[in-house]
Amino acid sequence: MTMEQALAAPATTRRRRPMADGAAAERRCLLWPPLVFFLLTVAGPVVALVQQALSGEGNAFAESLRMEVFVDSVWRTLLLAAVVTVATVVVGTCYAFAIAVGPVWVKALLMGGLLISLWTSVMVRTIGWMLLELPTGALFWVLELLHLRSEPIDFYQSTAAMYPAMIAVMLPFAVLPVLASVIGFDREQLKAATVFGAGPLLTLGAVVLPAIRQAMISGGVLVFVMSLGFYVTPLLLGGPANMTMSGIINAQLNTANRADVGAAMSLLLVGGTVAIYLVADRLFKVSERWG
Questions:
Q1: How many CB atoms lie within 10 A of CB 278?
Q2: What is the pTM of this model?
Q3: How many other C-beta atoms lie within 10 A of the C-beta of residue 106?
Q4: Are 236 and 94 a contacting pair, CB within 8 Å?
Q5: Average pLDDT estimate for 7-17
Q6: Dmax of the chain from CA atoms?
Q7: Burial of 96 (0-12, 13-18, 19+ CB in 10 A)
Q8: Residue 23: CA atoms inside 13 Å, Cβ hemisphere, count?
Q9: Distance CA 114, CA 90 (A)
Q10: Any idea of the CA torsion for 134, 136, 138, 140, to the nearest 10 degrees?
Q11: Half-sphere exposure of residue 272: CA atoms within 13 angstroms, side-chain side
Q12: ∠ CA 49-247-135 to the nearest 5 degrees?
């Protein structure tokens, strides 16, 4: 553009360019913090894992997949995550309904318990479940007090012992999305269903559940993905016979002294988790719900 054209250009055009340049610079400045955070906390550790996995003499990935104990832990982890997800979504939906429709004192009690659970360390909550499930723990004490049992309970460090604790730990992540959907539900639809003669069960199945289905799926995906990498609760309550993928990875790093195999297993776990999330997002559009 020549000097004559620049002088002849409208004043609004001359003002718009500095404003556009300033907006672009502002956007670039806003992008730097999350990019730096991503590089330091996500990309950097993944690169380090890849280097560690390739540092061994053989193919650590192939060796991991040939280990029967690791393959068994994969199926055990998937089963644990699936059962915990279904149970947590069901319990969480009922919990959200109770908060939404209950009296004020019930709402305060349930919401307070949910937030306390969310803010309390997973280790502390798991130890609490250990004290409850020990052969002569709190559960045995209550049963003995009620004259229902006199022998110690054979429940601690079993497959069944993991599930109630995992559901309790994961419950807030299923309740909160459903609760937000229930609170935003149009109550006029309930009145319309009642006017047309629908009973409580029909109203629940035909009106309420379809409206909150997306929130239930979003919470379920979040619970499932988080359950795949859970370490503390399954290890302490399930015992050595029920080790998940995270427990096997820890054993490779700290017991077998095979950092390359442990890194390879970690990458397989991360890759599988990302793949499951991408498939779920493709099918159910959960990122739109969270975004």
A1: 11
A2: 0.85
A3: 12
A4: no
A5: 52
A6: 100
A7: buried
A8: 6
A9: 16
A10: 110
A11: 16
A12: 160
